[in-house]
Write a structure and sequence with these properties.
7 helices, two-stranded antiparallel ribbon, six-stranded mixed β-sheet, Restriction Endonuclease, alpha+beta, 212 residues
Length: 212
């Protein structure tokens, strides 16, 4: 699967220049590039519920591939005694080590109104801002946010209110003084061989429509 990248506050440069994280980042990108349309179709077809978009299928596939590379799923963005802090979790994480910054991943496949929350998770992970909270990725940590491009939103059955890559970049630039952690925004491109179309019943349920 092809994708676009946007670097905020020098995130890509930091990943390229950190020996311990260069391979981690490269392996993740390669795993996404190797995702085939066939894999996505299979995952969508095996969904336990009547899915209306590719969001769940893409999130599951990327999570499985990342976990195979040693990423940890569903990790709290801060270590804190307050149970309310557990509401803030990252989809995937590479915790900080003695020699390497941590990396957190989140999926922004939902309503655009939730985008600020996704953008702030890496900031909370990289700093200790909640009283006795502790950073989980270190103050040099990096965030990675997955989004859909406009083409994927259209071809993948996403709701029109879902965050798209292009708008995420605009929002991030507006929040430059607020979001102080380096981020990479990933914009997933549309599949080349199929798209989702509404079923003949006119409901929100989608079916695979080949475009080959």
């Amino acid at each position: 699967m092809e994708f676009s990248l946007y670097s905020f506050r020098g995130a890509l440069e930091l990943l390229a220049n950190c020996n311990d994280r260069r391979d981690t980042w490269g392996d993740l990108q390669q795993a996404i590039l190797e995702m085939t349309d066939e894999e996505i179709v299979t995952r969508f077809s095996l969904s336990n519920r009547k899915a209306s978009s590719l969001s769940e299928s893409l999130r599951t596939l990327i999570t499985e591939k990342a976990m195979g590379l040693g990423w940890l799923p569903d990790r709290p963005v801060v270590k804190h005694d307050n149970p309310e802090a557990s509401m803030w979790t990252a989809s995937l994480m590479k915790p900080a080590s003695r020699t390497s910054p941590g990396i957190v991943i989140d999926f922004a496949f939902d309503h655009h109104g939730n985008l600020s929350r996704h953008l702030l998770k890496p900031c909370l992970s990289a700093t200790s801002t909640l009283g006795n909270s502790q950073s989980t990725i270190g103050n040099q940590g990096i965030g990675v946010i997955f989004t859909a491009t406009s083409e994927l939103r259209s071809a993948g059955g996403f709701d029109g209110a879902v965050t798209v890559y292009e708008r995420a970049i605009d929002t991030l630039d507006l929040l430059y003084k607020v979001v102080d952690t380096p981020l990479v925004i990933i914009g997933l491109q549309a599949p080349k061989t199929f798209r989702l179309e509404k079923t003949s019943s006119g409901s929100n349920i989608r079916k695979i429509d080949s475009i080959l």
